[in-house]
Structure formats: C-alpha cells, structure tokens
Write a structure and sequence with these properties.
- By secondary structure, the protein is α/β, with parallel strands linked by helices.
- The protein has a single domain, classed as Aldolase class I (TIM Barrel), CATH 3.20.20.
- The chain contains 12 helices and 15 strands.
- The strands form 2 sheets. The chain has a 13-stranded mixed β-sheet. It has a two-stranded antiparallel ribbon with strand order 9-14.
- Helix 3 links the parallel strand 3 and strand 4.
- Helix 2 packs parallel to helix 3.
- The structure holds iron/sulfur cluster (SF4) (2 copies).
Length: about 325
C-alpha cells in the first residue's frame, strides 16, 4: 500500500550542492550557473556550513549534490565531518562517474546511500537525455558500489521523454541490487526552462496511470519506492513544505533556498556569509509560500503551469501538490 510521507519539522533535510561543475550536460539539468556561480565550496566551508545545519532539528539528513559531487576532492572529508557532526543519514547523489576513486576513499559505514541517477531503462533513452556513454558508466558504478558493500539507490527523473521506459525498470533494479528506488518528476528549471520545457511535463492522466503501478511492481520485488504525489486528489489537504518542514537547498555561492522551484531566481530565504547563516530581507520565497491559490502550489503556477488544466469558468480541475510531497510504497505488495 502506498502511504503519503507527512511533512515534519522533526527532521531537517540539507541538500548541499558543494560545487556546480559537472562532467555531463544533461538536457534537463536544473543547475543554473548564472544564479549559483561556478565555484566549489572550500574544505573549511564544507565543515562550517555542515555545522550550521547539523542541529536545526532533532534529526538532520544531508544529501551531497553538485554538479557532480564526486568531482570535489574534499567530498570524503565532508562525509566524515557530517558523521562526526551527528547527521542521521548521509547520502551522495552521483551520475555514476565516481571521480577521485571515490569508493576507495569512504566506507559503507561512512555513507548511508549512494544514489545513482539514470533516466532511461535503455542506453538509447538514457544517453539521449544524459549523454553518450553515461548509461554504461552509471551501471558499472552501481555494480562496483554494490560489490563493495555500499547501499545504493537509483533516481529516475520522469519526463515526457522517458515515461514509456519506466515499465522496464523493475527487472533492471533487481539485477543491479538497488536497495531503494526514487522516481522524480521533471522540474522546469535550469536547462529545461531555458529550452522551453512544456513538452517535458507529464499529464495527470499519464502520471497516475503509470507511476503508482510501476512503484507497486517494484515494491512487490522487495525494493521500497518513493515518488512525488504531484497531483492532489479532491480530499487531499494542500501543504507547502516551505512553511511546515525544514528543507535547505544550499549552493556554493552561499544561497540557501527553502523551495527547489525557486532556484532559478534570487528568491532565496537565507544566505551564508562569512560562514554564518542570515535570513534575507523581504521579499523572498517565504513571502510567496503564504499565497493561497486554487491551483495549490504557487511556484508551480508561476514557473511551470503547463501541468495545470482548467474547466469552465477558469476553475482548476485539480491542485498541484508541493513538489516535496512524496508517496512511499514499501515491499510486500504483490507484483503486477
Ligand atoms: S543533471 Fe546532474 S549529472 Fe546531469 S549535468 Fe546536471 S549536475 Fe550533471
Ligand atoms: S514546491 Fe510549492 S508548495 Fe512546495 S515548497 Fe515550493 S512553493 Fe511551497
């Protein structure tokens, strides 16, 4: 059975982009160097910034991101510092290239999950989105990590270009030894926004027809699945994570956002200067979160409204959930 994961302030989730540089240039990359610069955090900043967020809530989870975080030579140092600072869970999101011999620099005790990004079940579809050769490298990286005892998860970002291959993922996940499967939905920011990403968005009918079914299939094979709710049902209550949860999206230029959909704009609620965290003066993203609109998420309406649909009299046919609201399907469901 799928369950909605409620928002809570008991845990802080720290999405730490330690650099914006990457060896790939995925068609849907959300990194916006115009907004977040090209620098990498220094070793000292890595430690100081991690301490700023370590005790914001009773539990803190950190996800190291980039760009490609394994391109940063101090990533293993950051991971070990996060452990010392008491972070409850430590995850590294990678495209699979695992630079600087990353797997030899850390142990499975240091990292809770290494999360690999793959956007197609086949080389053809994945490489058309993420670049030639990236499929084989990612699969080899997963196999190596699994063979060394690391827990691995896989992130599949669904868009109009790869939804059809989601059905082919379950046997691949089993074959690779993946422990958790995360389905994401395309956000129209970064490259996708620049190139006019309306065609990448998936309709409500298609999303609801395909994603929960594949999730239950995968869970039936023993692998837990998490996927975004995206479209609210009539009886669902709308909540904005920016107001009721503690998520921090940190960039190497010191910007700290509370909502990932705001990242293409200088709307960040906080800023790190001289290794101290400050609230920014109004107007910023937190002021937008307060706006109650019939379409649900206000930032969705502002930046990626092509997933909305209206009936007679301009009434929205449904509401869009917070992009951070997730459904989780635990193993135990019968395979379809
Ligand atoms: S999506 Fe990730 S792997 Fe792809 S170009 Fe962007 S940062 Fe690199
Ligand atoms: S995605 Fe929408 S609902 Fe969620 S934090 Fe951002 S503005 Fe709030």
């Amino acid at each position: 059975m799928k369950k909605t994961v409620s928002f809570s302030k008991r845990a802080s989730n720290v999405f730490f982009h330690i650099l914006t540089q990457c060896n790939l240039s995925c068609r849907h990359c959300y990194i916006n160097r115009g907004q977040h610069g090209t620098r990498a955090v220094s070793r000292d900043e890595m430690e100081s910034w991690l301490s700023l967020f370590a005790e914001k809530s009773p539990e803190s989870n950190v996800i190291f991101l980039g760009g490609e975080p394994t391109m940063h030579p101090d990533l293993p140092f950051g991971i070990k510092k996060a452990r010392e600072l008491g972070y409850t869970s430590i995850t590294v999101d990678t495209n699979g290239y695992l630079f600087h011999d990353f797997l030899s620099q850390v142990s499975p005790l240091d990292v809770d999950f290494i999360s690999f990004s793959l956007d197609g079940a086949t080389k053809g579809v994945n490489d058309s989105i993420r670049g030639t050769g990236s499929y084989e490298v990612c699969l080899a990286g997963i196999r190596k990590a699994v063979s060394m005892g690391f827990s691995t998860s896989l992130i599949y970002t669904v868009s109009g270009e790869n939804l059809t291959e989601l059905d082919q993922m379950p046997p691949l996940l089993v074959d690779l030894g993946i422990k958790e499967f995360f389905i994401q939905v395309i956000g129209i920011r970064g490259n996708s926004a620049e190139k006019g990403g309306a065609h990448l968005q998936v309709t409500r009918d298609l999303w609801q027809k395909v994603v929960p079914r594949v999730a239950e299939h995968v869970a039936g094979l023993g692998i837990p699945v998490t996927f975004p709710k995206v479209f609210l049902d009539e009886t669902d209550c709308f909540e904005c994570a920016g107001l009721v949860a503690n998520n921090y999206f940190i960039f190497p230029n010191g910007r700290v956002y509370r909502c990932p959909l705001c990242e293409d704009y200088p709307l960040h609620a906080h800023e790190i200067k001289d290794n101290k965290l400050f609230d920014r003066p109004k107007i910023h993203e937190m002021d937008l979160f307060q706006l109650a609109i019939p379409e649900g998420c206000v930032m969705n309406k502002l930046i990626q409204p092509d997933n909305l649909s209206y009936g007679p009299g301009g009434i929205p046919r449904y509401r869009i959930a917070c992009c951070l609201l997730k459904e989780r399907v635990e193993p135990g469901c019968a395979p379809l």
